[in-house]
Structures are given as structure tokens and as C-alpha cells.
Design goal:
With about 475 residues, the chain is α/β, with parallel strands linked by helices. It is globular, with a radius of gyration of 23 Å. It starts with 6 loop residues before the first strand and ends with a helix. The strands form 3 sheets. The protein has a 7-stranded parallel beta sheet with strand order 5-4-1-6-7-8-9, sandwiched between helices. Strands 12-11-10-13-14-15 form a 6-stranded parallel beta sheet, sandwiched between helices. The chain contains 18 helices and 15 strands. The mean pLDDT is about 95. Helix 5 packs across helix 7, helix 10 packs across helix 13 and helix 11 runs parallel beside helix 12. Bound molecules: 6-O-phosphono-alpha-D-glucopyranose. 6-O-phosphono-alpha-D-glucopyranose binds next to loops.
Length: about 475
């Protein structure tokens, strides 16, 4: 039976391709996620013996692990073999929320307000011990599933210690690590306690290859290794700039459910005397690094400085929930809502809602917004890549001008045809929004075409295969 064979390709990530919800009647419902990894992995085809190792995230997942022993029913996973780890809830919460999403995410995205934080005390050390235990659980499961000389692709900051731990257990494996986030500059990385900073770097250097989304993040990692460890040793450093999946997006964006959402949005946006309003579109998970509030402040400044835009433009902002277990994320979501309300009550008129904000996740509605975007606003404080910047030019119907933060990884590939902003500079962002709204049609069309070509240069399947080939050839 296939499910008992040792795997030749393994993927490890905190969040797996499937998750379960537990109904009141005890029934489990499975839902499948999308994203670059899911479609990337599909490139190797069903015949390759591949396993995806992930963590149980909530109660539904834990129940599925209890019922199956962790090897999920392939009927729930689209045929993919998945090994889900039932890590004890306290250990998981400390590792995921207490270290990965607080400390490591904050360090790589430069999010601390340093007069008061971080403060690495004994509570932090206790959470760190959980992070180690959680990484160890992954390393042991991978060691257990992997066939001789198998290739293992480990994802992200959650699992930074896994390559080193796995190397110790299974020296025969080819191990890769991929960071989907930025990497912190040396001085900022050194906020971490010295021993932990070194442990993280050594963990990743346990891999044969450590790869990143852009040269900038790869160079930052190398600089940290040089400063703290004297170099990167035998680990190769790679760059693979994940691109948008054009075929999937174009097909998905034209299905009836998206048409329906488009009609609803058009209705909501409206326009004086039947002339449709211009749109500034943003779609984000409400992460602190996305800079949604400064984006709205820039829009407010546009309406103040250039009253000619009042009634003629709408800011369509989708800010979907993320990591709501952490108070700082909940507070940020509330602030986004407040600023949108303030703008609407200051400038709104009976026929015009200046900010149309949606906070409930709806992929079809996101695609509808992509279709009608005149301007795409992507202004993160710092971002590993930002796929929205790549997706909107592919899907937008009439071409869109892209206002893009120079701190997004996507800037490396899209910067030439975007209107580039410093994400902290609200006034400059307001000026860029005006420039984007007034860009002439030919320029806008030509830029959109080049943006879409650059954005789709490395589709998810190629992105995945390139990594696998580089790892095997290394
Ligand atoms: C973002 C990052 C990824 C990360 C993911 C985790 O999308 O770009 O690097 O893996 O967040 O999000 P989660 O919802 O699982 O905490």
C-alpha cells in the first residue's frame, strides 16, 4: 500500500493543506487551503511518493489526528498524503503564538516599539523550550517518514530548528529550508538573545540549501551568519521568487460566483450619474506588517489635499482576519475599522461611501475586487513577497496602476513599473495615489502588461520544481 511506503519528497510546514472543523454532533468537516505550496507540490504528480508533514492547528485537527493516528484520510486531502502532528495544545500555542508569531515575525518585519519591547525574560525562555519541542516533533516525524536519501523541503520561521535536528537524526537526507518572510537586518536580528540568535541560524544551516524569496532577504541572512557565526558553512543559499499562478487566476476570476460579487461591489461603490467611480483596491490579511492604517491615512490625505477626488473615488479595502488569538492583532483590526469609520463620517455623503471595508474572508470577492481595480495599493512595512501585488495586474480588467512599497519583496521584480513608496511616508503615498489615479490609459496599459509578465515569471509549480532540482543536484 502506498501509504506505508517511505517518502522520497517531503514537505514540512506549520499549516498543512487541509484543516478540520468539529461540529456539535462530533462530525468532522475538512476544508482545503490554497496557496503557493499546495499548487507547487502538485507539480510532482500523484505518482511521486510525497508526504506533507504539518501541525494540528485547532480542536478539529486534533480530533482528526486522534481518529486517524495522524495519517489523514486521502479523501480529505485531494489525494495528498498528509501526516498531521498532534502536538500538545500548550506547547503548540507557546511555539506558534508565543515565539513564531510574536518574536520571530516581529524581528523579521521590524515591528517592535523598542522602548518597551522585546524583553526576553524567564517566561520567554519557557516559550522557547516549547518552540524547541515543537521543532523536535517535526524533525522526528520527518525522520520517520523519509526514505533513503529523500529530499525534504522545510518551510518558514516556525520550523527554523528542524533542518539541524533532522540532519542529526538522518545524515543521508537532502534538506532544504525556505523562508517566506523577509530576513531581519543584522542589528535588528541581534535584538534576540545571543544564544537563541545563533541557535536559529545554526538550525537553518543544518540544511543543504537555505532559500529565500528575494536577494535582499538572502543577503540579510548571510550577513547574520557572517556576523554571528563567521559564515554560512556548507549550506548553499538560493533565491526563488514565487510568482502568481496566471492560469489558475484567470480561470477562477471568471467563474459565476466572482461575477456575482463583482456586480455587488459595483453596486456598493456606485458613481454619480451612472459614471462608475475610480477604485483604489487593497486586499490583505490583517497583519501588523501590512500597513493598512497608513494606507487609509494616505487616502484621507488625498481627499483633503485634492478635493476634486471626493465623490469620484472609492477605497475598496479588504482586511481579512489573521491570528486573532493575539491581542495586538485584535487591536490592530479594531484600529483599521476605526480609521475607515472616521473617514466615512468625515467625508461620506448620502450617495458615496469613501471607504468600503470588508473584514470577512471571501476569496471570490477578492478576485472581483482585483477585476475592477484601477489602482492597487500594496504598501507593507515589510513583506517577504506580497502576492497580491503580483495577482492584481494579472486579473484587473482595464489595467491597474500599482502603488508599491519598496519594502515588499515584490519590489525587486515589479519596482520598475510600479509607483514606489516609502511605506512610512503618508504624504508621499497620498501623492502616489493621485499620480496612479491620473496615469494616462496607454501608460497604464503598458505597465500592467509588463507587471503581469514579471509577476508570472515563476509560477508556483516551477518555483517548487526549481527548489527540488537544486536540492538534488547540490
Ligand atoms: C504569511 C507569511 C508566511 C507564513 C504565513 C503563516 O502568509 O508570508 O511566511 O507562513 O503567513 O500564516 P498563519 O496564518 O499560518 O499564521
Amino acid at each position: 500500500m502506498v501509504s506505508e511506503q517511505a517518502a522520497q519528497v517531503l514537505v514540512a510546514s506549520n499549516r498543512g493543506p487541509v484543516s478540520y472543523t468539529l461540529g456539535e454532533d462530533g462530525e468532522l468537516t475538512s476544508g482545503r487551503g490554497g496557496g503557493g505550496l499546495v499548487s507547487g507540490l502538485s507539480a510532482i504528480g500523484p505518482d511521486t511518493n510525497a508526504v506533507w508533514v504539518c501541525a494540528a492547528l485547532g480542536d478539529g485537527d486534533r480530533e482528526a489526528v486522534r481518529r486517524t493516528g495522524g495519517r489523514l484520510d486521502t479523501g480529505d486531502t485531494g489525494g495528498q498524503r498528509v501526516r498531521m502532528l498532534g502536538i500538545p495544545p500548550e506547547v503548540y500555542t507557546d511555539a506558534y503564538n508565543g515565539v513564531a508569531n510574536s518574536t520571530l515575525w516581529f524581528v523579521h518585519h521590524l515591528l517592535y516599539q523598542t522602548p518597551l519591547e522585546p524583553a526576553f525574560d524567564s517566561d520567554f525562555r519557557a516559550r522557547w523550550a516549547s518552540y524547541e519541542a515543537y521543532n523536535r516533533a517535526f524533525a522526528e516525524a520527518l525522520a520517520d517518514e523519509a526514505g533513503d536519501g529523500a529530499a525534504v523541503l522545510i518551510q518558514d520561521y516556525h520550523l527554523a530548528l528542524v533542518p539541524g535536528m533532522l540532519r542529526a537524526l538522518r545524515p543521508d537526507l537532502r534538506i532544504g529550508h525556505f523562508s517566506h518572510t523577509p530576513w531581519a537586518p543584522v542589528d535588528y536580528f541581534r535584538l534576540l538573545p545571543d544564544d537563541i540568535a545563533r541557535q536559529l541560524l545554526r538550525g537553518i544551516l543544518g540544511a543543504d540549501r537555505a532559500a529565500f524569496l528575494t536577494h535582499r532577504w538572502a543577503d540579510a541572512f548571510t550577513a547574520c551568519c557572517t556576523e554571528l557565526l563567521g559564515g554560512t558553512g556548507n549550506t548553499a543559499i538560493g533565491v526563488h521568487g514565487l510568482g502568481a499562478d496566471a492560469d489558475f487566476l484567470r480561470e477562477r476570476a471568471n467563474r459565476p460566483d466572482v461575477d456575482e460579487r463583482l456586480a455587488e461591489l459595483r453596486e456598493q461603490i456606485g458613481g454619480p450619474d451612472g459614471t462608475p467611480r475610480r477604485t483604489i483596491v487593497r486586499v490583505d490579511r490583517t497583519e501588523l506588517s501590512k500597513n493598512i492604517v497608513r494606507g487609509m491615512l494616505a487616502y484621507r490625505q488625498l481627499l483633503t489635499d485634492r478635493p476634486e477626488w471626493r465623490e469620484r473615488v472609492t477605497h475598496v479595502a479588504f482586511a481579512y482576519p489573521s491570528r486573532q488569538d493575539l491581542a495586538v492583532y485584535r487591536d490592530y483590526t479594531a484600529r483599521v475599522q476605526e480609521v475607515a469609520d472616521e473617514i466615512n463620517s468625515t467625508y461620506g455623503t448620502p450617495g458615496w461611501t469613501p471607504v468600503v471595508l470588508h473584514v470577512k474572508d471571501d476569496f471570490a470577492r477578492s478576485l472581483a475586487a482585483y477585476r475592477l481595480a484601477d489602482v492597487a495599493l500594496v504598501n507593507p512595512i515589510r513583506d517577504g513577497m506580497n502576492l497580491v501585488a503580483k495577482e492584481i495586474p494579472v486579473v484587473s480588467e482595464t489595467g491597474c496602476a500599482l502603488v508599491l512599497s519598496r519594502e515588499a519583496g515584490a519590489y525587486e521584480e515589479l519596482g520598475d513599473d510600479a509607483l514606489v513608496v516609502n511605506p512610512y511616508d503618508v504624504s508621499a503615498t497620498a501623492a502616489a495615489l493621485h499620480e496612479a489615479l491620473t496615469m494616462d490609459d496607454d501608460d497604464r496599459a503598458a505597465r500592467t502588461k509588463r507587471l503581469a509578465a514579471a509577476a508570472t515569471a515563476l509560477p508556483p509549480q516551477r518555483w517548487f520544481l526549481d527548489q527540488l532540482e537544486a536540492l538534488r543536484d547540490g
